[in-house]
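Quick question, first post here. What does this chain look like in 3D?
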Amino acid sequence: MEVPFNNEFIANFARAESSKNILKNKLKSSYELQKATQNFEAIMLNMMLKAMWKTIPESGLFEKNSSTQIYEGLMHSSLSEEMATNGGGLGIAKVLYQQLSREQK
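> Answer (accepted):
Ran it through. Tokens below.
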């Protein structure tokens, strides 16, 4: 499998590393735990949006080049972040938060 090293990959990797580092520490504040679970959900949503975007047929109105790919990647990333933090997402973050906070006690 080829790993795509682009802006979207770097943003997802940074988000995942941040969440991993927060979860490694034994004592976590409620805010840190919530942020880590939201980051995880944002990554999942980003992957889902990318897969859904590929199913849309191209209209030919705009040519497909590197700038449109960068724009689409940034759009997916920001949309998934917004959905996970402010939109409630799919509820994955909420369930993970409840489970991890129970285990922390």
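The CA atoms of residues 71 and 90 lie 24 Å apart.
The mean pLDDT is 81.
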